[in-house]
Amino acid sequence: MIFRQLFEDISSTYTYLLGSQETGRAVLVDPVLPTWQRDLEVIRDLGLRLAYTLETHVHADHITSARMLQQEAGSRIAGPSLDGLPCTEVGVDEDHPLVVEDIRVEALHTPGHTDNHMAYVVGERALTGDALLIDGCGRTDFQNGDASTLYHSIHDKLFTLADDTLVHPGHDYHGRWVSTIGQEKGRNPRLGQGKSEAEFLEIMNNLNLAYPKFIDHAVPGNQGCGECPPDIPAHLREYCGDMEHSPQG
């Protein structure tokens, strides 16, 4: 399998490219609208063609490029079936992995950051979305998030994976690319080192985080699989990128 980890620096989001060496078909996990052209260039440079985009959850800090890539590359839109989005063509859950020839993307329902959040296991890699981050985790104070639920998602699902499983998070704000399950179990300051649920709840209930500046635009935009709201303020336009021009005219 061909694997690439791509970064979008406005929202510090990682997009993951999975490519089949047998057929040349590819999957993009959590693509971001401002970098859709970059992502297509990487795919084409590798001699691949985009078959699917796949979301871990309905994002609050960026807008997906799933709809744009569907328009430009003919890819199909996949995501958690629990979200029930009309624009999602392929629903994925624990009983229904996404299989593209030699690529098998197993879903793990890991709610807590959002109620329908999915992490994906691909061979030796876990794409943990916003549930488990490197030395951290996603916040739990919006989109039906719940700290207790997240604690159990991580301990009962992700921390049961092999210790040498690679952890590829949905974001990182400190230039880190990869961790392992063993590393997160051993040193994650919120969840590792044998932290109890009570200790985790105490940490999460006292984060005092600001209201996400893009959430009111991102959530409806992502519920439409990548519709940038027409009334978005000028200072937030960078989250959408230039959608007026297409390399295909």
Automatic annotation (TrEMBL):
Keyword Metal-binding attributed: yes
Pfam families: Lactamase_B (PF00753)
Keyword set, alphabetical order: Metal-binding
Domain of life, per lineage: Bacteria
UniProt GO molecular function: metal ion binding; sulfur dioxygenase activity
Database matches in CDD domains: POD-like_MBL-fold
Residue span(s) of domain Metallo-beta-lactamase: 12-171
Gene3D superfamilies assigned to the protein according to its UniProt record, in alphabetical order: Ribonuclease Z/Hydroxyacylglutathione hydrolase-like
One GO BP: hydrogen sulfide metabolic process
Stated name of the protein: Glyoxylase, beta-lactamase superfamily II
Organism the protein comes from: Thiohalorhabdus denitrificans
Lineage, opening ranks: Bacteria, Pseudomonadati, Pseudomonadota, Gammaproteobacteria, Thiohalorhabdales
